[in-house]
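Hey, I'm writing a tutorial for new members on how sequence and structure tokens pair up, and I'd like a real worked example in the thread rather than a made-up one. If someone can provide the structure for the chain below, I'll link this post from the tutorial.
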Amino acid sequence: MSPRVLIIGSYVQDHAWVVDKFPIPGETRRAKGFSSGPGGKGFNQAIACARQGVDTVFIGAIGRDSLGECAKSFAANEGLQAYWHIREDMPTAASSIVINADGENMIAVNLAANEFLDLAFLHEQAERFEAADTVLCQLENNLDAIQLAFQLAGKNNALRVLNPAPVHPELERGLLDSADVLTPNETEFSLLCRRFADIDIPADQVAHADDGKLHDCCRALSANTVVITLGRFGCFVSHGQNLRRDSRSYYRVEPEAVNAIDTTGAGDAFSGSLVAALSLLGEQPFYDAIHYAGRVAALSTETIGTAPAMPNRAEVKARFGK
């Protein structure tokens, strides 16, 4: 069966510690728990998408090492079609995540092989691009690979979705403009507005900004659809000329009530399930896909971890109904 969603992105082996509160510089705190498992924005999003029952393909880069074997094993166990560019000169990426009692996190990551995804390898995957109706990328890979992915997607009229995370220091306006849908969080949105729209809107003020002002900021940033994820404040949607079957050009969607214990990966759950919902819901309003993605993201926060914490479609239905 041909894939409908193609995700090009990062794989990172996560190492997570749970603490009562974050240590201050120079302090050693006893952790209440530790886990290690698959992660990386691209891989998290691919798992979130596939678990919604959508045909999903993932393309990423890993090293020829034990962590790379973990990546291949997890993908195989999930039934995820994954095509790996295996680097002989780079290790598989790894991260350190510290999670406090409020579910907040602090993360350090070595992106390693992810920053060397080969362009020739992407060209070899041409048939994957031809079969996809949606292509999703993030910014944990080398920018030339992301640009090529969107070029190949454009040739086949696929919907191009960019989760601009983390904001790359060499990111250019052209890559933003090539995305049909942008999904930044409030921190990324603030950085992008400052760099590309000459607008100073502090990250901690984005969620509380007037809707009309926020829409104006989005329009200055992109001519296309912008979806700002706002954590416990839900999300904000701003459309350009293409309303994507919505009746309004901008609106907010309230968050679902959950018992959040780990917000790591919630943004990935949102982006991955958004592209899944866009495939599942067909010609329904964009709002319906956003609403569904918010439910998946919310439910993911009730489990510690990233890729393994992504809920499947049956779990979402059991929790929230149809």
